[in-house]
Amino acid sequence: MPKNKVVSLNKLKVACKNCGLAKLCLPLGLDSGDIDQLDAIVQRNRPLHRGGHVFQTGDKFRSLYVVKTGTIKTYTQCPNGSEQVVGFHLPGEVVGLDGIECDKHLCSAKALETTAVCEVPFGRLEELTSSIPGLQHQLFRLMSREITKETGLMVLLGKSTAEERLAAFLLSLSVRFHNRGFSPVEFNLSMSRQEIGSYLGLALETVSRLFTHFQEESILLVDRKHIKILDMDQLYNLLSNQTTCLDRLQAPN
Amino acid sequence: MPKNKVVSLNKLKVACKNCGLAKLCLPLGLDSGDIDQLDAIVQRNRPLHRGGHVFQTGDKFRSLYVVKTGTIKTYTQCPNGSEQVVGFHLPGEVVGLDGIECDKHLCSAKALETTAVCEVPFGRLEELTSSIPGLQHQLFRLMSREITKETGLMVLLGKSTAEERLAAFLLSLSVRFHNRGFSPVEFNLSMSRQEIGSYLGLALETVSRLFTHFQEESILLVDRKHIKILDMDQLYNLLSNQTTCLDRLQAPN
DNA sequence: CGTTGAGTTGACTCCTATCAAGAAATGTGG
DNA sequence: CCACATTTCTTGATAGGAGTCAACTCAACG
């Protein structure tokens, strides 16, 4: 039994490495057979280069995608041609949930850098729920989590200043990097000021000004896309009035 | 067979009346047995008065709730004591999806007027997915729809003017009332200017000014909480740059 | 009929978008 | 490898939209 458990855990690790989805099932005590089943339906496509699309608005919905390495941004095209960023997705995070409803994708997803994703055919995933107990519930949880995150962002966009928005954004990235085993205080932004602004409902100039402002206050060290958080406490304090949405934005996938 | 179908449809209508959830399953061609199963788990509580809570932040998550009549607002409490409205829920709409993730509710839900809700114990609903084919998928769709709606609101809050926000809000209400068989051009707001403002990220004074402004432009007729839309086209035109989020906010349930 | 809460309206201020110009980095082709 | 083009970022000046503060009106209710 203990030996079996070890095998199972190793398999889990492998599966987690290949596809963040399996991680969902960790708290369930999946046995190795379950992992194998999950593993069997996951498709490993070759990495996308910067700018490559995972899917585009209007594409038929077939699969969810789990980011393995790199970053995906999701966005919609506005009638006037400009694009609106609706999300940034780091390793371990899932993209494509909005496609389930109408059986087609309602936003586009493109790589911000060289990025590897796992493709999980949704139909097969739905079938697996009958043979893997608890999987269904984990999927519901995953989607509930997505709703929570979006609610948090809504609140942030509705009633926060530019400063609070950028602070929340940086803290969210920090926590998410930390959860994946990267440094929570030092990381590279894979998105432009423009994209950050679009996501946070700010002009790119405002984002730029805030970065320099945070640097002047010794909260950050900014070198173009490289960010080092010098004073995490101050960053948190900026959000003292916004803890509600902060919690929502930060909880692990 | 045709006779059976009639029975089934009647049952469906009854079920729909009792609980909007069954409506989810309409496109699936549920048979009457399925409806009975769904019906059996639904609890009908007595109506809430204005101000009564369906659930509160931190409550253990047990059930989803479907609004039968009336209006529910969901909101979170900010650290400084003020509340932030995160949603208004009309008849047929589902409340409580954000509770699945952590097994407890992350927001509070209270009645804005005398309101009847159906309680659907989530555990039992999850069990039913094994005996009602397609139910699982409908639940995924429901949650996906919720994500889509929130994304739409995010975009609206991120990059729209106060005028556009209120126009989108009114059009969203209009469509949702229409879908439930009410007039799309004349209705009563069950929420205060304050609550509308909180939801849209605006000061209550701004909301008030916009109502008078819309009235001056002969777009609306406003008498306190009673709204009559005089010029639907103009209202749409205000959102010509925001059609993306408009679509997302409007689609049925 | 006074009290209370909601809504309206005005005056003022401030935050952030916009416009504009320049600097830095990145990429390209000769 | 260098000159040029292009994109991204930074910084400044300006203007406008919406928040805030405050006073007033109106409706509801005991």
Keywords:
homodimer, 253 residues, alpha+beta, Jelly Rolls, Arc Repressor Mutant, subunit A, 3 domains, 4-stranded antiparallel beta sheet, 10 helices, 11 strands, disordered N terminus, DNA-binding
Provide the fold topology.
Two copies of one chain form a homodimer.
Chain A: H1 2-18, H2 21-24, H3 32-41, E1 43-44, E2 53-55, E3 63-69, E4 72-77, E5 83-89, E6 94-95, E7 108-111, E8 116-121, H4 122-128, H5 135-159, H6 162-179, E9 186-188, H7 193-200, H8 204-216, E10 220-223, E11 226-229, H9 232-237, H10 243-250
Antiparallel strand pairs in A: 1-8, 2-7, 3-6, 3-8, 4-5, 4-7, 9-11, 10-11
Helix pairs in contact in A: 1-3, 5-10, 7-8
Chain B binds a DNA duplex (30 and 30 nucleotides) through residues 161-162, 192-194, 202-209, 211-212, 224.
User: What's the total number of strands of chain A?
Assistant: 11
Straight-line distance between termini of chain A: 31 Å
CATH architecture of the largest domain in chain A: Orthogonal Bundle
- The helix-strand sequence of chain A is HHHEEEEEEEEHHHEHHEEHH
Overall pLDDT score of chain A: 86
Helix content estimate of chain A:
40-55%
Which chains share the greatest interface? A-B, 47 and 46 residues
Structural class of chain A: alpha+beta
Number of helices of chain A: 10
- Major β-sheet of chain A, in short? 4 strands, antiparallel
Q: From the alpha-carbon coordinates, what is the Rg of chain A to the nearest angstrom?
A: 19 Å
Looking at the structure, the CATH topology of the largest domain in chain A is Arc Repressor Mutant, subunit A
Poorly predicted parts of chain A: 1-18
When the domains of chain A are counted, the total is 3
Identify the CATH class of the largest domain in chain A. Mainly Alpha
